[in-house]
Amino acid sequence: MDKLSRFLEVIDRTYTGPMVDEDEFDLKYVAGGVQRVLQKYAIKFNKDHIIQQDDALIDRAFEAGLDFLLECGVYNRSTGRLIKFSRDEILTTLHSAPSGITIGEGADARDYRPRKVEDTTPPQVSGGPIGTPLSESQYVPIMQSYWQEPILDLIVPGTLATTYGRQLRAKSPLEIAASWQEVYLGNEAAKRAGRPGLSRMCVEMSISDIGHLSSISRGGFKPTDVHVVPMIGEMKTNHELLNKIAHSIHQNGVILGFYNPILGGLAGPEEGVAVLIIAGWIALHMIYIPDSVESCPTHPFTFNSTAPGILRAVSVAATAFARNTHLLTEFMTSPVSGPGTESLLYECAGMALVASVCGASRILGVRSAVGVVENHCSGLETRFNGEIAHAGAGMSRSQADQIVKLAVAKYLRQLESKPIGLPFEKVYDLETVQPKKEWTDVYHKVKQQVSEWGLPLG
């Protein structure tokens, strides 16, 4: 069945599924459902390790995620109904999901393929400021600092802090203007870096659906770019998001669905985060019909993805998919630390190594200072994130676990203080778009330390 036919069946279910109150969905279906499957499948992590290595536990976690989705479904906030699927439908969909895609074009085209646990083939590396607000005056040099990094297979833009000097307003003409500005400024950064065909995720400036529908069209973002559509909160969608999927299907675009569960809250403990990543990724394949999926599980207070409990959840979810599916999966490095700090690079070492050895297909980063401080980002940390991911290919989980624990010890006490570091113009030369000596000195120092721990960074 083609994508459009499958998607139309999904839309039918948004109008015919069971009606449920949203509060009841949150408390009974999600929070209650997570606790049910954690008990049923005896999901309990070994806290002596970051990277979980009990494959029986990991396979049970995969079954728990599938069980959870069967009972919970996905809530459509636009209709107040549940979208649900049978076990046979889910297994058929997972079996027929893409086992590889090509992104980008020309000399910059990249083949994206699944990986297994402890795979010797390095993961792809995607990078950029990932939604960090960027000033209009520095947008091009900041983005060029990423485009020019040879290790990157895919670019993820930041967001414009303003558009043509004006505050962005969702669902207004300014959202359309900003989305097209993302096209034009990105084209200029790619041209300056000499990599015009490299794929990029889009549309960062599309707060609602209208920016996506406008700029993924003639003269804008391309089918070979990666069209990104999230789920809302825990296991929810709405018609605005489904509008984006409908448009990307008709544009024959590469679709990426992402789902970011939050530690605590409805997910409960870190074990619940792992179950929700698994369930959410399966749900994305059922509803958005993507080519690949991504997650950045988030801490409720520090908003990062590098806390130890989250890393444990990532290790289980990544391994569960690498062992039980051929799906294309990706995890984001979102540290609390910013450019110029050692802790930023140690946070990269933690997340990128966990995801790489546990079989993630692609490593995404770096959303420095958790993406909330204007211009606090640079291409150098994304280079380091990718180098860690490549160096981890083929390493055993037990060896990687020891290195990750050393990295976590280097930044754990900084998570609460949030060392946001320095803005781009303090760590890069704006004219040459090269990192300044002070920042490269930190980079080489941390690289040397991680190499001494046993990760072959060269």
Question: What does this 3D model show about the protein?
Answer:
With 458 residues, the chain is of the alpha/beta class. The chain has a single domain, classed as Monomethylamine methyltransferase MtmB (TIM Barrel, Alpha-Beta Barrel). The chain is 46% helix and 11% strand. The chain has helices at residues 3-16, 22-40, 55-72, 87-96, 139-147, 173-193, 210-215, 239-250, 270-287, 308-324, 342-357, 379-392, 397-411, 424-427, 437-452; strands spanning 74-76, 81-83, 101-103, 110-112, 124-127, 133-134, 154-155, 159-160, 201-202, 226-230, 236-237, 254-258, 292-295, 329-332, 362-365, 428-429, 434-435. The strands form 5 sheets. An 8-stranded parallel beta sheet has the order 7-5-15-14-13-12-10-9, covered by helices on one side. Helix 1 packs antiparallel against helix 8, helix 2 packs antiparallel against helix 3 and helix 5 runs parallel beside helix 12 (379-392). It is globular and about 60 Å long. The model has no long low-confidence stretch (mean pLDDT 97).
